[in-house]
Amino acid sequence: MSFWYEIWSCAGALVDTFSDVANPGRISLKDAVETNFMVPGISDTITTHIQGMYNARIMADSDTRLWLHTSDGLFTTNSAFRHLHMAVAFCPFARFYWVKFIPKKMSVMFWRFLRNAIPVDVRIQDCAINLASGCVCCAHRNIESMDHLFFRSEVATFLWDRFGAIFGIHRLNYSCLKDTIWAWFNIAPRGS
């Protein structure tokens, strides 16, 4: 547990309580306690105050966990959502596939595709499982990857050539499935 940045006292994180003090560096709470809070860069008066905060926490009747992502240390689902929402990388496709006119199972499938979480042969082999790969959509049993299965296999090329052209999407103009889908969402008519 970080001595300076995490909420271990009832007063909140020290970085917020003593904002005018320079960062003392990476030191754990355990290390600070072992040195009786004599940390370089922290004055004696602040050290005394921190010792009092620590002793008050030790003497408290209850020993409860404090949630790092709120100022009062209390966990709420709202604070967890806000923390996770900020931590998740922005997905430019999300506004296209989490919509009402697309069935949820298709949205989940597309979400799994973007996260490389569809269990095709190549992904299973990435988990150190020996597996002879062979795409069931091809007569020649090519290696089954997500890009191959949904973009380069014989069935996929037939479907993309047949239906993509109707919406102005030509498979040969794109190098991979993600580029093709990005084009689909940006070129094809809305709701297609």
Automatic annotation (TrEMBL):
GO MF, any single term = RNA-directed DNA polymerase activity
Q: Which InterPro entries match?
A: RVT-Znf
For this protein, the record's Pfam families field holds: zf-RVT
**Sorted alphabetically, which keywords does the UniProt record give?**
Nucleotidyltransferase, RNA-directed DNA polymerase, Transferase
Q: Which residues form the Reverse transcriptase zinc-binding domain?
A: 75-160
Designated name of the protein? Reverse transcriptase zinc-binding domain
